[in-house]
Amino acid sequence: MKLLTGNDLGTGDVVWWTGRDWSRHIEDAVDVGGQGEAILRAEEGARRVNVPYLIDAEATEQGPRPAHIKDRIRALGPTVRPDLTLKPADADAGAWVI
Amino acid sequence: MVDPITVNTNAGETLLRFRDDVVHDEPAVTLDAFLGQTNATAVRLEAGDDARELLEHLGQIALVEISFPTFRDGRGYSAARILREAGFEGELRAAGDVLVDQIPHMRRCGFDSFAPEKPVDAATLTKLLALYPQPYQKAADARVPVWKLRHG
Amino acid sequence: MYRYDEYDQSIVDARVEEFRDQVERRLSGALTEDQFKPLRLMNGLYLQLHAYMLRVAVPYGTLDSRQMRMLGHIARKYDRGYGHFTTRQNIQYNWIKLADAPDILAELATVQMHAIQTSGNCIRNISSDQFAGAAADEVADPRPWAELLRQWSTFHPEFTYLPRKFKIAVIAADEDRAAMRLHDIGIQLLTRDGVLGAKIFVGGGMGRTPMIAHEVKDFITADHLMSYLEACLRVYNRYGRRDNIYKARIKILLHEIGVDAYREQVEAEFAAIRDLGIDPPLAELERITAMFTGPDFASDAPDTVDRADPDFAVWLDQNVAAHKQPGHAIVTISLKPIGGIPGDASADQIDLVADLAERYGHDELRVTHAQNIVLPHVRKADLYVIWTALRDAGLAEANLDLISDIIACPGLDYCSLANARSIPLAQKIGERFAGRQRELGELKLKISGCINACGHHHAGHIGILGVDKKGTENYQLLLGGSGAEDVSLGKITGPGFDEDGVVDAIERVTDRYVALREADERFLDTYRRVGMQPFKEAIYG
User: Fold this and answer.
1) Interface of chain C against chain B, CB under 8 Å?
2) Could you give the ipTM of this predicted complex?
């Protein structure tokens, strides 16, 4: 599957395209399929999100899992500071990244 | 001159000028053309051209236009200073991808005329030009560096 | 220490307003990201993996307790309670909101600090020797010269859109504690016939093509330093490559045209501009120097230290250096606790070191290029109480220049350029060697998470470079680099490793070193004596 991601213009937060809007949580991301380039261009025009780009991901039971480790770290947060990730209470969250 | 005069040229360009003489209307020729045909009075330098090649002809030149192919290409800043350091008093024009936030530094390097590809916001430019009370360095403009204010 | 006058303050204040306006134009959509990026970078604001990152300048690594407390305040109020000290003596915050950045700069300006030119293709923060003003081996304090350079380079109108970034370091001792020869311009102060002047090195740097700077000018006096450096920069600005970002640093220009041709061009440029009044009068350097005369040291401070506490004695031997003033010492506070994140400090830790500096250290602090903090002027009689306070705050790791005193870039945990994580590897190495690091002696280990070499891997006695191998993290091992006065560039041992594999490989290297070392040879000395081969055999069998 293809996901669209970027960083929020104001906060810099990592965000994912949900089909209608942007979410901080990759679980909300949708497969943009062949529409990725068109959505990307439209969203670039809207200027809410910095440098949006398309990535490959795999659909899993826990939700989309990006193909590249960089985007998995973006989705979770720094692996060396579990307390600062999006899932501070989940001791196994880091295993999802590696 | 603190604020620029906006001039529309015959060629359809909008110029921001910090000088009040008449706009030079002879088209600028390339450096190669100028060096081969020495009666021209306006020259256009590309970013990679050597401004020093003009130094022995400065007396006959009224306008030097320096090209900025992208705003990231800073070679023109050095070209401008070289010409001013050699005593050039004609019009020095920055043309191309010139952004409003760059104009204050360009003024310091000796540019006194601007032909930006995309229009610059006049209010922003006015604000930016008045922002810094004094510079740290001596450059090609008349502004007095901080060290001179400190020590006279 | 340098204190702003009304001119300095008005320039920094104006910068805050300028950036506030630029941020407003970006948020309103008047500026595109492409146009805004160079403007925000010129103020140290990056967009990293998780958020904006703001890099705050610590000019030549010197600050006082009030400034240090401000860094802690910013960590608490605008970030997530910590900051990261960098290899260029700066600090960066990882979780900044764009709209907050102007307010942060405004707060910094109240304590004479800023983020000017901490990124972008311009002259960056001037770095220096963290022991400046305290070291017994310096010919002069290099910081007045660095401050002169700070002012000259701040908003330099000609050199703001250089082909690439430009880093300058100034030192004044034969021992190089600032990796001077690995800077675009390295300056070493020295005296000749009783006159203080500078030797100029050009074209050093790390990155994907590491090079050691060449001597370009044997001696230049202060009255022509600025015009000479303008000549150096102008030749680079005009002729440095702009067609390929990876070949755009000044080291490539020198490599391509040769140091002699470069020197000739600089001399021609210097001849054209040296009498144009670019140089400030010597009175300006004297004005600045007068602010660096140093504290009034107690002349009767006792010169002995009670070593009864064995843990304290270990720290004393490892992290405390000789001071030029009897009865005094230089303390390096390690930001490399075993298992910790190299260079990170919490807001509480930042406040603590500020308190210690104010109470015991003549109100001075330094940041080192090895990502540690220094109290440059403390009385030996106060060392034990300082150590106790540091120990209670988790800041008393006795590992200065040992294998766990690792320089590491933020790596893939934070950085959008990285290919591999650096920090978890640093943590594993620290844990693996914690018990035997003193036995291994001085061993500088440096980790970069990509080829840009922010973690100085080329200059590590042992260096590690993280690469992306088909989507997984892989680490190459290098041996034999040095960023000090015995500068050299490390060489890759061979095929790379996964994270645990590289830790094992380092253990095989250090085991072989212990077997081969003679007398008090450091790892680097043994490597230089025996070469790569024995270590290759140890690693790859």
Assistant:
1) 5, 7-8, 10-11, 14, 17-18, 21-22, 25, 30, 35, 38-39, 121, 151-152, 154-163, 226, 234, 237-238, 242, 272-273, 276-278, 280-281, 283-284, 287
2) 0.97
